[in-house]
Automatic annotation (TrEMBL):
Subcellular location: Cell membrane
Keyword match Cell membrane: yes
UniProt KW keywords: Cell membrane, Membrane, Transmembrane, Transmembrane helix
One Gene Ontology cellular component annotation held by this UniProt entry: plasma membrane
Protein name: ABC transporter permease
Transmembrane annotation, as ranges: 35-58, 64-86, 98-118, 124-147
InterPro entries for the chain: ATP_synth_I (IPR005598)
Membrane topology label: Multi-pass membrane protein
Pfam families noted in UniProt: ATP-synt_I
Length: 156
């Protein structure tokens, strides 16, 4: 194979690995922490706002149900984000395996919390509101994207 081509694409000069200074690494880590916090905040605000609106216009049962649906995702996601933020302080960071395992665990815990809610004996549980709270919180990231024009770290 011709040394001037890599994976079928021409290479200009020799390819050198990118070397970052410690200041550049710190800047990237700080930007990552701001982005993670912004997304979590946007999800929390979205879920709480929906819960408040449902409580005001539909009733306390719908508001509480939406809050439970929202928290079933927000609580495990907050733990996952905290783990990611802590990894930004480490020189090693977080590897892809830990990221995938953490994300999988987050989903399992969210499902377990929804299952626990289904075991609650109460006529107040409004499942449409639970699902709405869950979906609005899951998609709360889009609130941050819309408010910043795609640059999520601008909010913090």
């Amino acid at each position: 194979m011709d040394s001037n081509f890599m994976h079928g694409f021409p290479v200009e000069g020799k390819s050198e690995p990118v070397r970052l200074t410690s200041a550049q690494k710190a800047q990237i880590a700080a930007r990552s922490r701001r982005g993670l916090a912004t997304v979590l905040l946007a999800q929390a605000v979205s879920g709480f706002l929906l819960s408040l609106l449902l409580w005001l216009f539909v009733g306390w049962g719908a508001g509480l149900s939406a809050l439970c649906g929202s928290m079933s995702y927000l609580a495990p996601n907050a733990v996952f984000v905290a783990r990611l933020v802590l990894s930004t302080f480490s020189a090693k960071g977080s590897g892809p395996i830990m990221f995938l395992l953490g994300n999988g665990l987050k989903v399992v815990v969210a499902i377990a919390l929804l299952w626990a809610l289904s075991r609650v004996d109460g006529e107040w549980v409004n499942w449409l509101a639970v699902v709405a709270g869950l979906v609005v919180t899951l998609k709360g990231y889009w609130v941050a994207v819309l408010l910043t024009g795609g640059r999520v770290t601008k909010l913090m």
